[in-house]
Amino acid sequence: MVSPWEVVQLKLDAEGKRLDIKVDFAPGSTFPCPECGVACKVHDASSHTWRHLNFFQHLTYIEARKPRTKCDRHGVLTIEVPWAREGSNFTLLFEALVLELARNGLTVAAVGRMVGENDTLIWRLLEHYVNEARARADFSGVSAVGVDETSRQKNHVYVTVFADMLASKVLFVTEGKDHTTIADFKGDLVTHGGAVESVTDFSLDMSQAFIKGILAEFPKAHLTFDRFHVTQLMNDAVDEVRRKEQKDCIELKGTRYDWLMNESKVEPGHKPEFDTLRVSKLATARAYHIKTMLQELYEQHPDDAEAWFSRWYFWATHSRLEPVVRVAKTLQSHREGIMRWFTSALSNGLLEGINSLIQSAKARARGFRSASKIAPHRC
Ligand SMILES: [Zn+2]
Q1: Which of 23, 177, 232, 340 has its CA 20 to 30 A from that of 145?
Q2: How far, in Å, is the centroid of ligand 1 from the Cα of 43?
Q3: How confident is the model at residue 368 (pLDDT cuts 50, 70, 90)?
């Protein structure tokens, strides 16, 4: 114990499995005034108890009198004890144990059971440290931001996640998924020392709300439309063509996933039949080839990408396949952001990973009470 603190009594209750450590300061001890540091006499003191790390199987508590000093200049002030932070009923070592358990992937409920404390106290503790870390976060180096949304609950409450794409770190999590979400992010970025003009790139899907928000709040930033969302739109078109055609074409029954997969992933058992279908004159086969050619766009040399996309667009819009034409027009109107990938190389894979972590955390927590529980956005 740091002077003037000393252990004055140990009380071990073997039956009750409890150890009480009584700590006190000697009569006549002085403490530095929290304001000016001048050594002051103790004015009064009140008793407190803190939960400490277990001593083997014994629940362990530290009991001490918390002094208040009386400074000539600053009056009566409470002295914080060196083993606990202000307002906490746990010692710092006990809190460190809880943080470590939570960081190792245990749910709050599991941590609570393990240490024998209720969830609310554990949440409060975690929230304190997460908020503290958030308050210290420095966003001044952020230049490329990924944004994606995930639904929080079955009732379509959306959570939008912003990440620093170069540092692979979550920057901001908030409820909602409209253009004001981008303004909220901007506010938080600036609060943490980030600059609007430093953000040169955003990676996102083709969400109109996010596009609108970014154009308004970060007018100089470039948009990169996530390549997997781009090809996903085309996959949906292939599926739509197949569904329609399947009504008159029995061979297409049971082939849905073959058309959606990459060719190399088609089930070996389906392969011979699929190969026959693939080279047939079916509308689904044509849509599938158009999709494949779009995927190949991303394998082109940056200098050839524009020409490739133009050829693809011509082919797709002359396919007479309504869903394919529709998607081609959508992609054409987002062309700049699709092509930007060849410069920025950004994709939202990182965010998909983060979102699946949020989803699994959610499943384990069986619903959390507020969005702030995952990564508080208030400081
Ligand atoms: Zn003072």
Answers
A1: 232
A2: 13
A3: very low
Alpha-carbon distance of 93 to 60, in angstroms, equals 12
Dist. CA 245–CA 251, nearest whole Å:
10
Residues with Cβ within 8 Å of residue 34, at least 6 apart in sequence: 69, 74, 77, 78, 79, 80
Measure 74 CA to ligand 1 centroid, in angstroms.
4
Q: How far is the CA of 39 from the centre of ligand 1 (A)?
A: 8
Tracing tokens 């001490």 back to the chain, one arrives at 64
10 within 8 A of 24, measured Cβ to Cβ: no
Per DSSP, what are the bridge partners of residue 21? 10, 62
**pLDDT tens across 158-170, in order?**
889 999 999 988 8
pLDDT digits (tens, 9 = 90+) for 279-325: 888 999 999 999 999 999 999 999 999 999 999 999 999 999 999 99
- Ligand 1 centroid to residue 37 C-alpha, Å: 6
Q: What is the pLDDT of residues 73-95, one digit of tens each?
A: 999 999 999 999 999 999 999 99
Task: Please report, for residues 42, 119, 318, the alpha-carbon distance to residue 46 in angstroms, rounded to integers and kept in the order given.
Answer: 11, 27, 83
Which residue, among 77, 90, 83, has the nearest Cα to 38 in the 3D structure? 77
Q: How many residues does the chain have?
A: 379
